[in-house]
Amino acid sequence: MQDNLNKYLTEIEFLHQQQLYRKPITYIPISATKVIKDDEEYLMMASNNYLGLTHHPEVKKAAINAIEKYGTGSGGSRLISGSHILFSKLEQALAEFKSTEKALVFNTGYVANVGTISALTSSNDYIISDELNHASIIDGCRLSKAKTLIYAHKNMADLENILKKLPYSNTKLIVTDSVFSMDGDIASLDEIAYLAHKYNALTMVDDAHATGVLGKGHGSVEHFHLQGKIDIQLGTLSKALASEGGFVAGKKILIEYLINKARSYIFSTALTPADIASSLAALSLITNDNSLVDKLYDNISYVQDLLQQNNINMKLMTPIVPIIVHSNEKALQIAKKLYEKHIILSAIRPPTVPQNQSRLRLTISASHTKNDLKFVITELAKLLF
Ligand SMILES: Cc1ncc(COP(=O)(O)O)c(C=O)c1O
C-alpha cells in the first residue's frame, strides 16, 4: 500500500474498532415491503417508502410509459437541454399540492437543501438551525457564507434567545426538519412561524418525512394550518413519493432566484422522464385518494398499541419509530438478530445520530400488513428485555 493511503486504512480500522464501519447490502426488492437476499425472503422495516407506492401499478406504468415516449435520460442540465415536458407538469402539481405560487425540482432532497440554503444566504446573513437537523441541511449551512447558529432541539426559548440578539434588518433564515428523520418527532412549526414574524426572519422547513405523511399527505404546513406563512417548503420525491428527486416550493420570486443562483440546480444533469413521471403519478394518487395516508395512520396506531402491550414505552407521532439502545454494539447485535428472523431494520449510529444515541430505526408503511407489524414488534420486544 502506498504511504499516502495509509491514513485511510487507519481510519477504516478505527471505524471497525468502534463498531461504526458501514457498507451497503444488496437486496432484490419484490414488493413495497418484501426483499429477497440469498434466495430467502425478508420483511423490510427500514425503508422510507411510507405509502408503499414504489410498487403501485399506476406509478410503475407511468415510469414505463415515460421511457417509451421520452427516452431514458434527460441529456442535460435544466437550464441547457434537460427540462423535458414532465418537469413543468410536476412543478405545477407540487406548487398546488403545497399551496404555494411555484415549485422547483432538484435532483435529490440532499442537493435541494445544499443548493437552496447556500444560495439564499450570504456573508452578512444568519442561519438558525435545529441541532438535530438532517445532514443535508448541515451541509447547506457549511457551504453558505452566512454565520450558522444552532438552537437546542425543538427548544423555542433557545431559538428566541438567539433571534433577539441578531440585527433586525439582516437576513435570517430559520431552518428545521418538520419530521425529524431519526426521531420521528415533529418541529413546533407554529411557534417557529410566530418567532420568525416577530424577529423578521425567513423560514424554511424540510418536509422529507412529512410529505405523504402529515397534513393528509400535503406536509407540515397543512398540518399546522400555516399556508402562506412559511417561506420555503422543501421536500423529497424519494420517500413517500416513491421516486427520486427533491423540490422546493414557495413564492415565485424565491423560485426565480433559486433557478438563477442554486448551483446544485444549475450544474447537474436533470432527472430522467421516468423519475418525474413516477413522482407525478404518486402525487396524483395521494391528492385524489386519502385512503393511503389513512392506511398508514391505521398502521401507526396499531404499532402504538403493540408497543404498549409489549412494555415499550413510546409515543408515536409519525411512521418513524426510534428504539434507542445507546451503544453501537447493542444496536448492531439487535439488528443482526432480527435479520436472522428475516426482518430488516437498520442500526443507526454516529454520525447519523449523536454519540451514545445509537438506535434501531423502524419505519412503518401503509403496505405493511397487521401480521407483519405484530411479528416485528413481538420479535423486537424479545430482544430488548
Ligand atoms: C430530513 C431529510 N432531508 C433531506 C433528505 C435527503 O433527501 P434525498 O434522500 O432525496 O436526497 C433526507 C434523506 O434521508 C432527510 O431525511
Describe the model.
With 385 residues, the chain is α/β, with parallel strands linked by helices. The chain folds into two domains: 18-47 and 290-384, Alpha-Beta Complex (Aspartate Aminotransferase, domain 1); 57-288, 3-Layer(aba) Sandwich (Aspartate Aminotransferase, domain 2), CATH 3.40.640.10. The chain is 43% helix and 17% strand.
What does the secondary structure layout of this molecule look like, with pairings?
Blueprint: H1 6-17, E1 28-29, E2 34-37, E3 40-44, H2 57-70, H3 78-82, H4 85-97, E4 102-106, H5 109-120, E5 126-130, H6 135-143, E6 147-151, H7 156-164, E7 172-177, H8 189-198, E8 202-206, H9 220-223, E9 232-236, E10 246-250, H10 252-261, H11 263-266, H12 273-288, H13 291-309, E11 320-326, H14 328-340, E12 343-344, E13 346-348, E14 358-363, H15 370-384
Parallel strand pairs: 3-12, 5-6, 5-7, 7-8, 8-9
Antiparallel strand pairs: 1-2, 2-3, 4-10, 9-10, 11-14, 13-14
Helix pairs in contact: 2-12, 4-12, 5-6, 7-8, 13-15
Pyridoxal-5'-phosphate binds at residues 108-110, 113, 134, 136, 177, 181, 206, 208-209, 236, 238, 246.
